[in-house]
């Protein structure tokens, strides 16, 4: 979660990073089929990062979704 | 009302808050209906934020301040927490949101976020930092978590 917030901080005009408490926002969780946490949904499910991952893994997925 | 934070924990947080460097504005958006955790989230923040002079809290009702909610992209989401930078009266949005009550493990996240924003530096590695800075398309990250 903090990694997502760090990313937003670097470019807030382009990035919105929401931490979502899955049990309170059940509709959203169901929409994305959240079954384990943390689970990061990128651009409404264009990408996905499951688990707390190192920066490199996050970067790789961002590049896959948004391009290099 | 009974406190959510025992004095011992409050003292520990006060200690950790010595790491705070610059003012932080926390905005809490609540709703009168369909919000099981709004009252508790408000109480938690009202206990945490006064533990440092660098932290300020404002509480907003989604129904009463729809334009502000829209501005912060938290419409129909409550409780929603925005953690922003503040210089005097100027509030700078860093795109940092937390939807729900930050309890359990996520309480630590809240404290980390406050310190992060207060430091005004993302602390990212150079490679990721450069990539994010160069983004030309919007990026929406939603990190789903549970309190335990």
Write a structural description.
The complex is a heterodimer of chains A (68) and B (148). With 68 residues, chain A is an alpha+beta fold. Chain A is built from 3 helices and 3 strands. Chain A has a two-stranded antiparallel sheet. The longest helix of chain A is centred in the C-terminal third of the chain and has 12 residues, at 55-66. The mean pLDDT of chain A is 96. Chain B has 148 residues and is of the alpha+beta class. Chain B has a single domain, classed as Glutaredoxin. Helix content of chain B is 34%, strand content 24%. In chain B, strands 1, 2, 3, 4 and 5 form a 5-stranded mixed β-sheet that branches. The mean pLDDT of chain B is 96.
Write a concise synopsis of the structure shown.
Chain A has 68 residues and is of the alpha+beta class. Chain A has three helices and three strands. Chain A is globular and about 30 Å long.
Biggest chain pair interface: A-B, 41 and 46 residues
Instruction: Give the fraction of residues assigned to helices of chain B.
Output: 25-40%
Can you name the CATH architecture of chain A? 3-Layer(aba) Sandwich
Q: Classify the beta-strand content of chain A into a percent band.
A: 15-25%
Q: Assign an overall shape of chain B.
A: globular
Total discrete domains of chain B: 1
Class inferred from helices and paired strands of chain B: alpha+beta
Strand order of the largest sheet of chain A: 2-3
Biggest beta-sheet profile of chain B: 5 strands, mixed
**CATH fold call of chain A:** Glutaredoxin
Radius of gyration of chain B, CA atoms, in whole angstroms? 16 Å
Strand content of chain B is: 15-25%
On the 0-100 scale, what is the average pLDDT of chain A? 96
Uncertain parts of chain B = none
What is the helix fraction of residues of chain A, given as a range? Answer: 25-40%
Order of helices and strands of chain A: HEHEEH
Task: Please give the count of helices of chain B.
Answer: 5
Order of helices and strands of chain B: HEHEHEEEHHE
Indicate the CATH class of chain A.
Alpha Beta
- The CATH architecture of chain B is 3-Layer(aba) Sandwich
Terminal residue distance of chain A: 23 Å
